[in-house]
Structure formats: structure tokens, C-alpha cells
Specification:
heterodimer, A: alpha/beta, 12 helices, 34% helix, B: alpha/beta, four-stranded antiparallel β-sheet, 21% strand
Chain lengths: 328, 326
């Protein structure tokens, strides 16, 4: 959708786990691009493959996982690349933020020294320069009084402050891409708001691209330019955020938006729910994976898998994998 | 006017802190509210606000420092184990993580039957089984699930088992402590609808504790907003959400992400809540919220604001937001 060269380009990505009960396909052919300075939100429920997609990009899948397809970061292929090279890329070209800030930080060292270590190891600068860069990035992620916080230990900081330190350490080497997996799920709502503001500010001011993985459509609404919705290992809809939230084309996206109570809706007696459950990743249904739960499904949906194809033309173009998309 | 089902007055739960020279953690401080039969009270606040301690105090699981807990006309605040028995049957709880709250060695049928084993030992075993399976069907799990184990079920199915277990002995109040927070969005809606149906059919009261304001607004008739163990505001949920009087309530509402990019972008310009939650061991003087409050004045640091009645509710603030109803 954008003509500027992609920082991240994912093509036909597949992730298969070998388990005692046979192969499990967690990701079944996912493609997307993220341009410089742009942000993509990947949304889905548990088992949708969103986190495995994210881990595949980071090269952090466990040993029983087989990755297929292509992941290119600034043109460099990451699938099948040597482990040592990935260790260099993670941190320097790709910053990573996980859900739990406490486990991402070493408990017995001050947050400042942890930031400095990243800089000294990867950028080969001296202690003074490392400290300068660490303080600069702490300010960038809106940590007030960074000089004082520099010498504090993770346990002395609140959850929101810790997560901002993790974001700072992901950004301190000025990576082209920042990947965050459920970065606000463990935080209180007021703290979440502040951390999301930090992400927005970072993308705006540093030109870093962002991939944000979450189960919460509300979280991506204000943070991401583009949204991809995943279900059963595939992207079922991809569109710019404004289009997706205004007029979701895939019945699953529509249902996800409908079944969540909102603060600004008229309170209703009942919520619209999606009956049933997502299919087991061990199964491979011939048709659309959402068909068994879809109110609009017809015979074709159960036998023929819909491809992810453009819908409509001009502004508000989106991709949807559906035989019976919701009319705008 | 008849007495409400649950009437809590000035409930205070303080925990002594070891090694801090007599310091106390004021987990719940002078909190009052009531819940009528068939009604739902939502309790919201950030972590450390005292939501879960409040629930435990209601069940007699933590010692009450002061105040009263009247349930169905009896005060249980200082009851001993033995006299708590009727309360334990009439007030049941549904927790956030169903897998952690169900016995892994029990079949689903046994999990649901257990409260009957405790409270109705006189009933024939076959009758207890029958009631347990009937309750499983009521929560949408067919008899096919009865002989399976919790680990074989999904999170949503296990939460249905927890609900069946909570309901089987005929409670009058069910406390839901983050009961849908760990579930996927599509499953959340199923469980919330189930709770609404059950409440309609049985007339049970619900105390719905959650950090998720959208969900609380959907289910609650009344609302209680806590911060560091103190009541910030309470009232009819609909009016509190529409026109909060306490700045903290306003901040909480404003922090909830809305799935609409236009609204989110517009809100990005508004000031968010500043600072972090103070330590509950060293709460600020005066109003405990003042360190993060955009409206705080010198007065707020000196005098704790009293809880003043307003309409059907009350709030504790020296500089409340304007009353738009008048």
C-alpha cells in the first residue's frame, strides 16, 4: 500500500511445530510489509498465530518449530540465517518488547547499567558515550528525572516505568524495527495509556517502524497505521486502521468489534457473541477456518478456502479473505 | 425500605507489616456500599486498590479491622469459622484463572458437585450428581463434559465449570473477581451473557470486580471506584460513567482505549494521568489521589476529603468535576 521500501517484508510465512501428537500448523502462510516509520498492529485471539508470527520474525521460536517462507529485514533474509547473525540483528536492527517487563530486565543491576551494556556491546562506544545515549533514550520514552532513575533497580520502579525502560533498551541502538508482543497486557489501564503514548511518540519522532501484537483492538486503534487481523494461523483482513474500524469487511473482524462492550456504546442487555471456539491448530479445515462460527457462511465457505484479496478500489482499500465480505 | 442483601459499612482491613516498626498496610479503609438482591455492583480500580482484599473480607477470608458486613440481616464482620458457614454457602466466588481454582484430580462433575458434598451431605450421592450435571447443562456444557478433567477443557469451558460450581448450592451473591479477564474477547461475551441470563433467572446478586471498565459498565447497575483502599466515588453506574464527579474516575475512563482511531487520535492530545501509583505503605497525606490529580490544591495535601453524598451516590473530592445534572 505504500511505495517506500519496506523495512520488514514477510512472505508466505509458515510455522509448523512437531509435537508428540503430530504436526501443528500455528502460522499458515502470512504475508505483509511494514514501511519505514509506519506501524502495523497484528490482532487475534489466543491460538490465532499472532505471537508465533512475531517469534518467527524475531527468530526466537523453540527447536521443534519449522519456519517456511521469507522474512526480510531491510532486504536481508532472516529465515534460515545463522544464529550468531540473528543475535547481532536483534537489538541493533530489531528491538523487542515483551509483555512482562520484570523478566526482561536483570533484577540485580541498575536499569542504567543495563542500558549502557547494550550500547557498549553492540555499538562499541566507551562508558561516557553509552551513558549519554542511555539518558537520551530514557528521556525519549518519557522517563522523568532520568539521571536519578539511571541508578535505580527494576524493583524500585513501577510497572509502567519498567516497561518504558524495556522500550528504551529496545530502542537505544536505533533499530529500524521495533516488535512488541502484548506490551501493555500486564499493565493497569492508566499505565497502558501512558505506554501507548510512548509508542506513538517513538514512531513519530524516530522513524522506527513498529509491529505491535495484541489481543485488544482498542490498543491498536490509536497506535497503529495499519491493522492485520489473524484467525487460525492466517490473516483474514488487512487494512489501514481508519478503514478497518469504520467498516470491517471480514465477518470475524466485525464480530470481534461487536462482541466487546465499549465505553461509548448504548448499554445493551446482551452482548453479541461469537458462539463456539476457534479450531484446533492441529486440524486443517478445507474451507474458511471461521466458517463454523460465521453467521454468513454458505456451502462454498466450507469447501473452498478464500484467498486474501483486495476489496474495493481507491481510498479505503483493504484485503479480506472472505467469500461473503460485509458490505461497507 | 427493606434492607439490602449485602450492606457493608465502614469496612476497614489493615494488615500489619513485619519489620516496619508497627507500620500497617491499609488495604481497605472505611469503605461502605450495599448490593440489593438481583443487582450488580461493579468494583473498579488499579492494582493495589483493595478490590481483591475487599472480596476476601466479604467471604471471611481475611480478618476485618473495623466496620460491619451485614448479609441477609446478619453481621459477619467478626464471625468465627463456625458461624461463617451460612455465609460461605450463600456467597460464592468465581476467580480469574479457572484452571487454578478447580481441582485437577476431580472430573468436571466432581468439581461442580463438591459444594453440595459440603453443604448438603444429607442428600443422596445420586441426587448430588444429578444436580451437578443439571447445573453443567445450565451453563452450556452438555453431559458429555461431566466425566472429563479440567485440563482437557478450554479456558472458557473451565470458566463455565467454575460458574456451575459457584451456583450449584444456590447462592444469593456471587463475587466475580476478574472472572472474564483471562478469556479471549469472543469467549468473554459468551460468559457475560451467561451470567446475565443466570441473574435474570435466579435473582442472584453479583459483585463484579474488574480492571476492565468497558465490561464493568456493561454489567453493573451500581459502581464503586477504589484507589489505595479508599472510596473515590460510588453511584449508579450509568451516571458515574456519563458524568463522573471524581477526577480519578474521569482519568480511569479516559485511559480506556476505544476501538476507533478517530476518537483515539483526538484523545491523544488530552493530558493523561501523570505519575505512578504511590506505595500503599506510605500513602500521600490528605487525599490519597492528590499526587496524580490534575486538580489538586494545597488543601488536598492537608485534609482528606470527606465522602459527600451526591444524587444516588457519593464522592470524596475537594475539587469535584461539575455536576451536569443540575
Amino acid at each position: 500500500m505504500s511505495t517506500s521500501p519496506a523495512v520488514l517484508s514477510v512472505r508466505d510465512l509458515t510455522v509448523r511445530f512437531a509435537t508428540r501428537r503430530g504436526p501443528v500448523d500455528a502460522v499458515r502462510g502470512v504475508s505483509f510489509e511494514v514501511a519505514a516509520g509506519r506501524s502495523l498492529g497484528i490482532v487475534g485471539e489466543s491460538g490465532s498465530g499472532k505471537s508465533q508470527t512475531c517469534f518467527a520474525i524475531m527468530g526466537l521460536l523453540p527447536g521443534n518449530a519449522r519456519v517456511g517462507g521469507s522474512v526480510r529485514l531491510d532486504g536481508e533474509e532472516l529465515v534460515g540465517v545463522a544464529r550468531g547473525r540473528l543475535d547481532v540483528l536483534r537489538g541493533s536492527r530489531m528491538g523487542i518488547v515483551f509483555q512482562d517487563p520484570m523478566t526482561a530486565l536483570t533484577p540485580h543491576r541498575s536499569v542504567g547499567s543495563q542500558l549502557c551494556e547494550v550500547v557498549m556491546r553492540h555499538a562499541g562506544v566507551d562508558r561516557v558515550e553509552a551513558r549519554r545515549r542511555a539518558l537520551e533514550i530514557m528521556e525519549r520514552v518519557r522517563i522523568t528525572d532520568p539521571e536519578r532513575r539511571f541508578d535505580m533497580y527494576p524493583f524500585e520502579l513501577s510497572g509502567g516505568m519498567r516497561q518504558r525502560i524495556v522500550i528504551a533498551s529496545a530502542l537505544v541502538l536505533r533499530p529500524a524495527l521495533l516488535i512488541a508482543d502484548e506490551p501493555t497486557t500486564a499493565l493497569d489501564v492508566t499505565v497502558q495509556a501512558e505506554v501507548l503514548r510512548t509508542f506513538r511518540a517513538v514512531v513519530e519522532h524516530t522513524g522506527t517502524s513498529l509491529v505491535l501484537v495484541t489481543h485488544d483492538l482498542g490498543v491498536v486503534a490509536g497506535t497503529c497505521d495499519e491493522v492485520a487481523v489473524m484467525y487460525a494461523g492466517r490473516i483474514v483482513e488487512r487494512a489501514d486502521a481508519a478503514t478497518l474500524f469504520r467498516a470491517p469487511a471480514h465477518p470475524y473482524t466485525r464480530a470481534l468489534l461487536d462482541c466487546r462492550p465499549r465505553l461509548d456504546d448504548a448499554p445493551a442487555a446482551r452482548l453479541r457473541s461469537i458462539e463456539g471456539q476457534p479450531p484446533s491448530p492441529a486440524l486443517d479445515l478445507p474451507g474458511c477456518a471461521f466458517a463454523p462460527r460465521c453467521a454468513l457462511a454458505e456451502t462454498r465457505c466450507r469447501v473452498e478456502r478464500p484467498a486474501l484479496e483486495p476489496l474495493g478500489t481507491g481510498a479505503g482499500t483493504r484485503l479480506a479473505a472472505c467469500h461473503r465480505p460485509v458490505p461497507p | 425500605m427493606t434492607e439490602p442483601l449485602l450492606d457493608v459499612r465502614s469496612l476497614t482491613v489493615h494488615f500489619p507489616v513485619r519489620g516496619r516498626g508497627g507500620a500497617v498496610l491499609r488495604a481497605v479503609d472505611d469503605v461502605s456500599f450495599s448490593v440489593g438482591a438481583g443487582e450488580t455492583l461493579g468494583v473498579v480500580g488499579e492494582s493495589g486498590c483493595g478490590k481483591s482484599t475487599l472480596a476476601r473480607a466479604l467471604l471471611g477470608l481475611v480478618p476485618v479491622t473495623a466496620g460491619s458486613i451485614r448479609f441477609a440481616g446478619r453481621d459477619y464482620a467478626r464471625a468465627d469459622e463456625r458461624s461463617l458457614q451460612p455465609l460461605r454457602r450463600a456467597v460464592r466466588m468465581v476467580f480469574q484463572d479457572p484452571l487454578a481454582s478447580l481441582n485437577p484430580r476431580f472430573t468436571v462433575r466432581q468439581c461442580v458437585r463438591e459444594p453440595l458434598d459440603v453443604f448438603e451431605p444429607g442428600l443422596a450421592a445420586r441426587e448430588r450428581d444429578r444436580q451437578a450435571v443439571a447445573m453443567l447443562e445450565r451453563v452450556g456444557l452438555g453431559t458429555a463434559f461431566a466425566e472429563r478433567y479440567p485440563h482437557e477443557l478450554s479456558g472458557g469451558q473451565n470458566q463455565r465449570v467454575s460458574i456451575a460450581r459457584a451456583l450449584v448450592a444456590g447462592p444469593r451473591l456471587v463475587i466475580c473477581d476478574e472472572a472474564v479477564s483471562a478469556l479471549d474477547v469472543s469467549i468473554q461475551a459468551q460468559i457475560l451473557n451467561l451470567l446475565a441470563d443466570i441473574q435474570r433467572d435466579t435473582g442472584i446478586a453479583l459483585l463484579f470486580i474488574s480492571h476492565d471498565l468497558s465490561v464493568v459498565r456493561h454489567v453493573s447497575r451500581h459502581l464503586l471506584v477504589l484507589y489505595l483502599g479508599r472510596t473515590m466515588e460510588r453511584g449508579v453506574a450509568r451516571s458515574v460513567f456519563a458524568h463522573p464527579r471524581h477526577p480519578y474516575t474521569r482519568s480511569l475512563i479516559d485511559a480506556v482505549p476505544v476501538p476507533d482511531p478517530a476518537i483515539e487520535r483526538a484523545r491523544a492530545a488530552a493530558p493523561a494521568l501523570v505519575g505512578e501509583l504511590p506505595s500503599p505503605l506510605a500513602p500521600p497525606s490528605g487525599c490519597v489521589f492528590r499526587t496524580r490529580c490534575p486538580r489538586a490544591s494545597q488543601l488536598c495535601g492537608i485534609t482528606p476529603p470527606p465522602l459527600v453524598p451526591a444524587g444516588d451516590g457519593a464522592f470524596a473530592c475537594h475539587h469535584p468535576l461539575e455536576d451536569v445534572d443540575r
